[in-house]
Amino acid sequence: MSRISIKYQGPLCGEITPSPDKSISHRAIMLSSIAKGKSIVRNFLRAEDPLSTLGAFRQMGIDIKDRIQESGVRSQESELVIHGRGLTGLTEPGNVIDCGNSGTTMRLLCGVLAGQTFSTTLTGDASLRTRPMQRIIRPLTEMGAVIESEKGGYPPLRIRGSKLKPITYKSPLASAQVKSAIMLAGLYCHGITTVIEPGKSRDHTERMLKAMGADIDIKNLEVSIKGRATLNPLDMTVPGDISSAAFFIVAGLLVPHSEILIKNTGINPTRTGLIDILEMMGADIRLENQRVVSGEAVADLNVKHSRLKGIDIGGDLVLRAIDEFPVVCIAAAKAEGTTKITGARELRVKESDRIATMAAELRKMNVNVKELTDGLIIEGREKLQPAVIQSHGDHRVAMSMAIAGLTAEGETTIEDAGCIDTSFPGFIKMLESVVEFGLEKRTIK
Ligand code: S3P
To answer: What is the DSSP-derived secondary structure letter of residue 341?
Structure first.
């Protein structure tokens, strides 16, 4: 178990490239594995979560080579060669599949496994075993899947592969994981499967499926897919993850005299709620060199220290920034005035209950926080008090509180910081590279 200590050491300056996108990395493995032929995925995220997905498909007989790892080059530049065996080419795993901490692995995998001719058991770590799975069990069961779970719809899950039928599912939740699981199961049906969402969740699955030749139709909140078609292999480069860039964006805004360039960052419109939120708070963020890479919008972000003010955040912005709320809380804690976040009840069922964990940890830094059932009210303050912080095993809580520590006067310690490796193994090194005088130290217990 590792801990990190962080102390303010001057402004952030220079250039960084955030780690590769986690959502896209998961999908690239899954879809390439069930495509027919050799896919190439450059800039794959070699972090614990997508590696759980990679391990799962290797367990089901897919030949996945990591060229860079094999030649011993840095993890960030990982290039995968995946030999997809078509929709029906997976083989029964000899063992239970361990999805680790990754909700995306478990929920999306259920969609693929529902249409197989074998049975599989999926489990995960203590956090994943408390996360709700009914949201995918319900629609997949409607399609004909047989899924056993712990009481209340919790993992481990036992999925018996079945003959599936297409459905039109009006989802009560705007969730990319639910939408994607149904679309993946839809690939195994004869006919057209439709998902209608109450709000537009991230659309990486749709984009990738389209690029692979799937017959997919998108009408705003409604996505339809025709099943049983063969997917063409992928040849793609994964963009940088805006959810990882988020920590550097907020750090650059909060630490006086900072200016950093965050390169090669995905700016898919379903993911850019954080930029909109911070701009509403008064942030100076400029999008430069906008381009499209492998079907996803990408830009370099120029971020300058800015005075932020508190705002009300709700509605569509919540969905477009759902993973960024821990770090939005840090921006709010340092803003002038009060920030109110509502309509974000989903935060209670992420890797930790992020409403409760962020409230508890920010209070240790002397911030006035009120918990709402579906959000938080945070009173901004000029100075944060250094503290000993718990990550609650949640990577985004750990990294957000590290940024809070950077803005505090004195040394802040983040306990149990090893969880950062689930999404961003190079986080501390990257932070050290832009803090002018270096971070105080990193100790491993
Ligand atoms: C993800 C979708 C989001 C997000 C999660 C990753 C994905 O979850 O919070 O970190 O890759 O599809 P929901 O689909 O549950 O909203």
So the answer is: E
| pLDDT for residue 253 is more than 70 | yes
Q: Could you tell me which residues come within 8 angstroms of residue 395 by beta carbon, excluding any fewer than 6 positions away? A: 101, 351, 419, 420, 421, 422, 423, 424
pLDDT tens figures, 380-395: 999 999 999 999 999 9
User: Of the residues 98, 323, 394, 421, which is catalytic?
Assistant: 323
Is 323 one of the annotated active-site residues of the chain?
A: yes
Distance CA 168, CA 182 (A): 10
Main-chain phi, psi angles of 227, to 5 degrees: -85, 170
Residue having the nearest C-alpha atom to atom 9 of ligand 1: 323
Query: Could you tell me the domains of the chain?
Result: 3-19+239-434 (3.65.10.10), 22-237 (3.65.10.10)
* Mean pLDDT, the chain, integer: 95
Statement: residue 445 has pLDDT above 50: no
Query: Is the pTM here over 0.90, yes or no?
Result: yes
CA of 270 to the centre of ligand 1 (A): 11
